[in-house]
Structures
1.
Amino acid sequence: MNSFQFLVALTASFGGLLFGYEVGVMNVVLVMDAFRIFFKFHSWNGDALDENSKDTPDKAKMMYRKLTEANNKATLEGVITSSFVLGALCGALMATYLGEKYGRQRTIMIGACIFTCGAIIQGISARHWAMIAVGRLITGLSIGCNGVLCPTYISEVAPAKIRGTLSSCYQLMTTFGIIVAAIINSIVWYYTNSTPDGLGEKREDIWKEVSNFEWRFALLFQVIPGLGLAILMSFLPKSPRWLCSKDRDEEAVEVLAKLNAASTSDELVQSELKAIQEDVAATRATGSSSFSELFSPVIRRRTFITFLMQLFQQWTGINVIMYYQSQIYDEIGFSKFMSTVVLPIINNFVNFISTFPGMWGIERLGRKTLLVVGALMMMVFHISTWACSTQTHNGKMWQYLAVASVFLFVFSFAWTWGPVPWVYQAEVFPLRVRVKGSAVGTVSNFLNNWIIAFVGPALMKAWSTKTFLLFAAACLLAWVYSQFYVIECKGLSIDEMDAKMAGKA
């Protein structure tokens, strides 16, 4: 791999940064007092809490606002949070058409511009949940598009022997986006929600707004990475496979030469071009593709594997933790500062760092091995989180053990089930149906993500930490699926993969 190949893969993976920031920002925004009051999740009569979130009449000890939860809080929270994922679901379907008509590189640029528009709508939202929900739906359209096309684009410009490692850069940048959002917005939360004006002063209008700078800044900040991705992608080459599929072979060979740091007449460049041309010719010989082809005897097994892999990724419970982790830590018994600032940053850092072992292991240990090991580890740590949370009344040690179990679950996910599904779906389908196949996986991811995001607040309210047992059961099913149904495709070229999958269909 040369520096240009790495730069292309890294830049394209910035689509994951947008995804990560959007996930990370909502965890903090949802616990910002101004956001809660503005959208009438909570009311505030002027009462205050001390640094340990206990009622206090002593002005010297007043630290936070004491908000009163509205009856519809869980429902509205679920609608606003999940609208982003609903948009992503639609975006994944859009990517199929746009990616084939306009190319992977240009469509990623379009997606970044859509993301920027959605961020602006969120940041200037009026005092009704519908406007911010629409803004999040629009940003979701972009993430759905990029979720399909970024890993696909990377896999089409990366050498086969390190395709998995480079494709997992998308997941790495997703985790990096989450930690960036956590750090920036936790700092904003601390300076705007600690010792605010009006503590202990009776408010006649309990729904009256307070300063909305905190959450508007947090959401508008998304404009920067959105525009950044659009600008950077304009400097990247088009996919050589897509160029060949459009009879632009001369452009394709120039891109291949640049990617390989060689001349257009170089033997390696010519052999790669010939392989792509043969793949395109074989595709055309059988006519245009359709979604029904994903269920043909040759391809259907990889379709089911991809769909179920993304389904189980979401039902591990990772996004309940990422979307609502501050509220989970609060439920376990930690203070507002610990729940909103310290613990989310530590957790998101664990998530980011743990992606690196996955980038190493995905080529050395294989995709299937990571899935099997990861499912078992996550199941164990879900159970331990629940068990420790039932003992928190016996002392702070149990609170820290519960949180340690959450961190260990995130570690288990981030190096296994985090990157593998995205890498797998980008590499298992032949060129003819690659975008459509990848779209099926991404649709599965976002459909189940939407369900989790919508029901998550209600589950936590009704079951509290017993919710972790539900996710432990899902991890057990994920282990059975990985062990007995998933096919390993480590180190295979696209053609070798086609042969292996066809034999296993």
Note: The chain has a mean pLDDT of 89.
2.
Amino acid sequence: MAMVCLTDFEKYAKEHLSKTAWDYFSAGADECCTRDDNLLAYKRICLRPRVLRDVSESDTRTTVQGTEFSFPVGISPSAYHCLAWHEGETATARAAEALSTCYITSTTSTCSVEEIVAAAPNGYRWFQMVVYQDRRLTEQIVRRVEALGYKALVLTVDMPYLGKRHNNIRNQFKLPPHLQFKNFNGLQKQATVDPKTYITSDPSTTWKEVHWLQSITSLPIIIKGILTKEDAVLAVEHGVQGIIVSNHGGRQLDGTLATIDALTEIVDAVKGRIEVYLDGGIRTGSDVLKALALGAKCVFIGRPVVWGLVYKGQEGVREVLQILKDEFRLAMTLSGCRNVAEINRNLIQFSKL
């Protein structure tokens, strides 16, 4: 079967994953309203294309934190890639390297950061993390990824507790015994530790911990999980280098804004002082175009990467990224834009329905 669009990969993954694994990756919190609205929100946004603009040549390249990407789509952090494909995160990393874009490695990856770097030595990577109650453990991880050449830390701030994901509870989901949180091997006995120890942050974490992180690393800090202008302003005031507008794929607090709906107020609050990115709900190249028109510097995708892994490992993820790149180029030129610098809010009209 020819894989034409990202929903083709979704259908394939649902047919080939076990029910428990599919439920894990597709899960949203509570009634899944936010998970679903992340997608539906894009359908409420209309494009206002310009014509007769000479789009015989086009350029999808952009820069993020001073580094050139081949197109403005990166890979969000997500856990347990070995559930989807035996090579797991190493396959994901190689695909990102092949497309010259960013891969944000999850703390709870099923391949170690060392394995990931070895698999894609020329790849551009950020590292997703939380602040643990054990600050020494947090610092150890930070120093480890810094030494391995990771280019930024992505601090997840929306997980003081784990969201209620109904099917995961019904399935009593847990990582199969042959898989591990490899970044923690040797640090604690795997069998005796509640997985939530590694997944959620210290609930007492505040903005003070941002300053603490800045005191132990020279890496840029990107805050992931901001949905309001108030927190965006605080992020700027605390000297972070970027924001990922994110609701955790709708897996944490149900009933929040779709990320594309939250984007504009955050971009306006930041006023260009730091870069703003977005994840959640990206399924087509026109979705990417809409996010950039509303002020995102770059977007990140999560579940579609897992679907690509299920389909064909590294090659499947590469295909997912290539389809998005091709669709983005087409949407951009059909809208009259020759490069990302020409994309702006004049392209956007919100549906009155």
Note: The chain is about 40% helix and 15% strand.
3.
Amino acid sequence: MMTDNFDRTPGAGRVRGKPTSPGLGEAFTPLHPEIGDGDAKPSMFSPLEPLRQPRTSPPLLDSSASGGGDCRRPTKTKSNSTQTPNSTALNLHKSEDVVGKSTLSVNAPEFYPSTYTYEELAYEDGSEGYYPPSTLADLVQEILSHLNSSPGSFEFDIDNITATLNEWVETEKTLEELVELIYTQSTSIPNFAYTGARLCNHLSHNLALSPASGNFRQLLLKRCRTEYEQRDVVVRGDKDTQKNFHSYVLFLGELYLNLEVRSPKGPPTRAAILLSALKDLIITLLSHPVDGNLICAVKLLKLTGSVLEDAWKESGKSDMEELIQKIENVVLDASCSSRDVKQMLLKLVELRSSNWGRVHTASASSEATPDNDPNYFMNEPTFYTADGTPFTAADPDYSEKYQEILDREGYYGDYEENGNDTFDTEDDEMDPEIEEAFEKFCLESERKKRS
């Protein structure tokens, strides 16, 4: 009956078709339960509420009232005392003729006027409808946008993200496209280098596809090498070119710190090829000492300096000494860089002289004593004697002085050996001076209330 076709919520039953390839909505269903009948799936990161029921339903005539089972809205008719039964029957007959000859169908497509402009429906909660991504680029863009806005959810979402990418990346071509997309976004989105490097490390170990041309890690390093080989040209380019190059340098630094190369014979190691590349990039930046290049070199060394120096020392190299010498030469050159940048370089040299701010304790905490650990009493509180002399636990007379404080303050009072604590309550009464002051206070308060 027609009543059944119209008795539904506006918009209900209309679902957008699934993409032919698996999308985010399908892969992330473990995170968010399906809504409705399961045909339309919400976004993987922001589940949507189902459509609310309408506040009012259109008034419908009882199907029994119309002989043909048609269901039409009742129309208001003006009361006319002069209307005759014949005219009423004539009007009804004309209406039935119109309905009987009508070619309208409930299955007809929706009609839009020629001047109508389609707009997305806005949900009451301000959210937008979710369209499963139709391309790998859309998928990666949504993933990276989410990780950039919510980096704290990385550990929670990374397994589902990897499962989705494994469904999409099934050919060598799509793997190369994925590498290019992640590389481009990681070097263009501000402050995304760290999260991008973590994502690259996880995918390098968990993407199933590994063609003969190279796995994810190998293709990523190959893409980084392309930019590395152009370093001498781009470092002297225009402002935008240099800015892109600086983003690449910092991403490479994060990649060196986070990308693990696993070996069945031992623990994971860092990519040795990135170690030598970072040294060459720092030398390139210092060879063209404009402010932007020098600031990038400072940021990179603050980020990776301690790790780089440790790696070079393990292999018996003094590469860090060479870099510090170049920095000092830049500082001494009066024609190079501004005063503020030179100050940054000096602070960097000072940081390196302090072992990059690292503090090595003299011994383990379980073995620390006042004799072998200068910081043993660092967090101890400071006490004062009756005459105001300060002392700490490091003082030789600490026990005697601390006991004097306890005796003077009467912290323990009387203590019975049978385990029942009783304290002297004789001092609970106020001193005469305090009692007098309290009475004055009460009188003054009472006087103010009356006034």
Note: Confidence is low (pLDDT under 50) at residues 1-9, 11-41, 61-81, 412-417.
